[in-house]
Specification:
The protein is of the alpha/beta class. It folds into three domains: about 100 residues, Rossmann fold; about 100 residues, NadA-like (Rossmann fold, 3-Layer(aba) Sandwich), CATH 3.40.50.10800; about 90 residues, NadA-like (Rossmann fold, 3-Layer(aba) Sandwich). It has 15 helices and twelve strands. The strands form three sheets. A four-stranded parallel beta sheet has the order 2-1-3-4, sandwiched between helices. Helix 4 links the parallel strand 3 and strand 4. Helix 1 packs parallel to helix 14, helix 3 packs parallel to helix 4 and helix 4 packs across helix 15. The protein is globular, with a radius of gyration of 19 Å. Bound molecules: iron/sulfur cluster (SF4).
Amino acid sequence: MDISERILALKEQKGMVILAHNYQAPEVQDIADYLGDSLDLCYRAQELDADTIVFAGVRFMAESALILNPEKTVLFPAFDATCPMADMLTPDAIIAAKKRYPDAPVVLYGNTTAACKAHADVICTSANAYRIVSSLDADTILFGPDKNLRHWVAGQTDQTLVPIPDDGYCYVHNVRITEEDVRSLMAAHPEAAVLAHPECTPAVQDLADKIVSTNGMLAEARSSPARSFIICTERELCYRLRKEIPEKTYYEIPHAVCDDMKKTTLATLYEAMATEGRAMTLPREVLERARRPLERMLELSRR
Ligand code: SF4
C-alpha cells in the first residue's frame, strides 16, 4: 500500500475525518473528506459527527475547529504551520485599541490567534466580512488584522473601520501577487476574467472583475459565462478548480505560494493519524471566550 492508501485505511479504521483548506498541496487535497475556505471548514467542523477531526491547514484554522468542537479531538499534523498575518496582531494591541475606542465593536478576520479571538465581538472571513460589518449597529468598528480586506470592506460601507494593527497583511497576497504579475497575465490572456482575493493589494483589486473568497472563486468559475480566469490567490486553488471544473481554463501566479500551507504532507498526516499525538489544545478560558465571537459569525452568516 502506498502512503495515500494507508491514510485512507487509517481514516476508515479510526473513524477520522480530514478537513483541508483550498491552499493545501494537491496530494493532500486528494485524500481530504472536505475541502473549503475557512468559513466552509468552520461549518463542516460543527456539523461532523466524527470524534476526531484531522485538520490540514494552518494553526488558527485548527484552533477554530477545536473552539467550535471542544468535545472532539482535533489533530493538527503540521504543528509549526502558522499564518504570519495572524501573528501580526496581539491581544495587547486589541486591548490598547479598545481603550482608544471604548464604544467600537471589534471585528476580527478569522486569520487571528485564538488568544486574539477571545477579545473580539465577532469574527469574519473573506466570504462574509461585508455582511458581518454591515450587520453591526455601529459607526466605528475596530477591524483587523488584514489592511487589504479592511480597504475592500470600507469601500462598501459608510462605517469607519479602524485598522488593528496599522499594517497587517498576508505575504502571499500582498507581496507575492503584484500588479505587474496580474497585468502581464491580462496582456497574455485578454479574454480571461480576473478573480482576486480581498487580501490582495488595492492595485490588484482595482484590476479584478470580481473580488471574492476562494469558495467564491469556485462559485464564479461554475456560474460565469467566461471560459477562462486569472486567479489572484494562492496557486493551489487552481488544482481544485481544474479538478472540479475541467472544462474551463485557469491562469495562476506560479510564485503565489503559502509556505505554511505546504507544511502538511502525506507523511505528517499519516504520523498524526497513526500516533494521535498532535492534538490541538487551548487554555479553557481562551476556548470559552473565543467561542462566542465565532458562533456569532456563524449565526450572522446563516441569516
Ligand atoms: S495564504 Fe496568507 S493569510 Fe492564508 S495562511 Fe498563508 S500567510 Fe496566512
